[in-house]
Hints:
The complex is a heterodimer of chains A (178) and B (419).
Chain A: E1 8-15, H1 22-25, H2 50-53, E2 59-62, H3 74-81, E3 85-88, H4 93-101, E4 106-108, H5 112-115, E5 121-125, E6 130-133, E7 139-141, H6 147-154, H7 158-164
Parallel strand pairs in A: 1-2, 2-3, 3-4
Antiparallel strand pairs in A: 1-5, 5-6, 6-7
Chain B: H1 5-13, E1 24-27, E2 31-34, H2 37-40, E3 57-60, H3 70-86, E4 90-92, H4 100-106, E5 116-118, H5 138-146, E6 150-153, E7 157-163, H6 172-183, E8 190-194, H7 203-212, E9 221-223, H8 227-233, E10 254-259, E11 266-268, E12 277-279, E13 291-294, H9 296-299, H10 302-312, E14 322-325, H11 330-338, H12 341-347, E15 350-352, E16 373-377, E17 392-395, H13 398-407
Parallel strand pairs in B: 2-3, 2-5, 3-4, 7-8, 7-10, 8-9, 13-14, 13-16, 14-15, 16-17
Antiparallel strand pairs in B: 1-6, 11-12
Amino acid sequence: MSENNKLVFSGRVWKFGDLINTDLIMPSKAFRLPKHEQHTLCFEAVRPEFAREVKPGDIIVAGENFGMGSSRPIGEVMRSAGIVAVIAESINGLAMRTCVNSSLPAINCLGASDLFNDGDIARVDFLSGLIENLTSGKSVQTHPMAPLLAEIVAAGGVVPMLVKDGYIHAEPFNASSS
Amino acid sequence: MGLTAIEKILARTSGKDVVRPGEVAVCKPDMVLHIDLPMAIEGAWYKPKKIFDVERVAMIFDHAVPSPTIKDASAMAEGRRMAREFGLKHVYDVGRHGIAHVVAAENGLARPGELLVCADSHTCASGGLNCAGRGAGIPDTLQAMTKGIVWYPVTPTIRYEFTGAMNSMVCGKDVFFHIAQTWGGHGNTSIEYGGSGLKSLTVADRRTIATMSAEVGAEFALFDYDELTADYLQGRLDRPATPAQADKDADYLDVRTLDLADVEPYVVLPDAIPKNGRRFSEFKDTVRIDQAFIGSCANGLIEDLRVAAAIVRGRQVADGVRFIVTPGSQAVYLQALREGLVETLTEAGAVVTNSTCGACLGYHMGVLAPGEICITASPRNFKGRMGSHDAQVYLGSPATVAASALAGVITDPRRAART
Lengths: 178, 419
């Protein structure tokens, strides 16, 4: 749930370990599904219940090198599943850009794994870098999101920015499958 | 404090004299590569209304060529339409195709000292030629090719100083595995490679190491420019390029020396790369394989095919093993034909396929069934990467893969050396 559009979110935590790669977040067989179904394969190999049980407003908390891997649109897919924020001990550089460019805010936070258990309620303030566990009452301070990245997230991502400025068409291109 | 070579490229392309770690640089790309896959993923692509510079946007089909599905065929039809609409100057359609990073190197699109954008995570391949490229996403590429901008966090840089030279049957791939084993992940840092040992590393080995740098989570990965780079680029560039060189007092997070003679052949176990490798001298397991693969942006170069052909010449692939070899480009394929490598590999029982990303990402031409085991000279061993989640993917050098294909089990390539 967003508070005043200030990039503050609170929601239930889905906790993952280290080295959650792009192919686990979005297996390549999802490329061939309609966009609104792609998230049904999200984390299928490691948490098969995720797609069934995730609720709009939930938050991902992960360990080291979250999102390691390819350029596939993992930000879009997690957002489609209902995820509103990603917090990890470390986020892979490409994953960070893929999330931010898709308006899914993501932040590096040392100590995030120890701060949360699965199912806790997290509150994350991207502009101040304060990460709180509302269930336990504990918190960690991390580096705030860079202003340019926060602007992209707040604008709804790169695609709406490019549409608004007349660089691209507003509707996605969908390659025919028949 | 001076600048690293990567900082210099980011500074120049963002119109500044200096950039420092902690900043976000908004840069103008020198080249943008557009590939087929973004147009084939449902809902991921938006048709451009403008192109920032038709000389600086290249269309290269690689992930699914020739098209295995109607959706891929439709994606590439849209790519052709777009290339015609805007009059793109660099188009590599089926017949002139290849893996984007290989085609870019061969055709002078990855230029020393410049900045290259592509929606593929192994874009750091260009770093082998002193061209800065870090894997970007689909929105990045859209923004780069239309508006002509791309943002990068400026990260600290780690420098590797190579000394010495590799031993026989050790490949550039093993040098990368050694780095990943010794130092683990490099998240949120860039890497520069140089040192007196650089002269013993072929440009092909450098391209392999640069490509693989994505697998330790590096941002940019850049090799110093030297005479070997210049020799490779001779006749490939259509305008002069200015290589990037770090200042003598550049500010590195760490400087690490690596004697190439200390590197042994490695095998990397399934599911992850950093700290997940084994030197063959301490790898005693007997791992039977169903498939052996050589190809991809990391190991689809002519040098990789030569290594494989030299090992299998006059021998036979083990019963029950599928040995698949995918050249990195049409140019590599043609060169392999001319040198007789296709014949040698085929006589040994290998399948030499058309050039594509194909089996590496489990998309087509070599997908694994549940329970199968593959040893591969490609960049990734993620669970499910090459097909079923219940398949296992081990990584090795082209020499290791060829030796394993003959033995039917994962094999130290030094055991396949001819006396």
